[in-house]
Description:
Nucleotidyltransferase, domain 5
Amino acid sequence: MASLASFFGSFFNKQVSVLGIDIGSSAIKIVQIRKKRGHAVLETYGELALGPYAGTEVGRATNLPVDKLIEAIKDVLREAKTTTKSCGIALPLSSSLITFITIPPVSSKQLAEVVTLEARKYIPVPLDEVMLDWSPIPREDVYVTDEETSQTEKQGSDFLVVAIHNEYLTNYQQMMSGSGLQPSFYEIEIFSSIRVVIDHGVHTDMIIDVGARSTKLYIVERGILRASHIINKGSQDITLALSKALSVPVSEAENMKTVYGLKGGPEYKELTEIITVNLDYIFYEANSALLSYQKKYSKNVGKVILTGGGVLLKGFVDLAKISFQTEVVYADPFGKLETPAFLADEFAKAGPEFAVAIGVALRRLSELD
């Protein structure tokens, strides 16, 4: 838990502040920012583990009821000394269905009907049970002849379609109401991450988000999501594997993982081997998704960007570089904000965990312009 409120005092009371909230399976992350002279300024931020609210260890994935999540949200808001209720909320990728469709050329009046009809093929529940949204995927900018342009138009248009079950949204609305928060939007975490970890340009990047329960992969081209994939293994699985193999309590295994990671030296050879086996599985799955994308679109991914608490494991980035044979970097979402210079090292270390929360906060702040 960290708070910057004491560094800035009552001056913030005169500013319009907003919150970004990321409710993960093992922790809640929040960020409060405001705008000053056209720049986003960090006011306070905080993180709270959810394991204890489920009667289990820190770092464990949970499935808490709404009332327990309300309790946890109130606690993290109080501990971070937040001063606003205005916020945006990130929803986990697992709560949604994301698909890509191509539709034939249609008029703008017919667009909604045609996209809905096509999306129905990919959504396994009745459409009246989900909130459906979509956005066009622009084609690459190329110089073409009139004949080629006509042929492209005949091919139709590509769309990104997102569906979220109404019941899931209702639960989140109950949480926000019970916590006294006032969200102006809900968005899938994938888009929050893209907002803060991808730089503008024509390159293609892959984001690897290692959470407690799972690992999410996003391939982003020209700032637009082109593919996503979930690997059902996360940082919690490493802890549980260590606990079983070393015959130690889960809490001790979590501590060993955090303190030593892959950098324990010869005396922790077994620890290193167990962690490596689990990470190799994640990297193998990630490479498979990567190769599939490259084969389909004949494009290489130039950089891998690491987010999520699981990537902070010591030695993670070194093993990732060997596996992917390309540039691998940690996300630096705090770099999008003005922050106290003397805390630069702390923000660099915490950055990958707060990518989603910062991305949400920045969108909420942009709504005030």
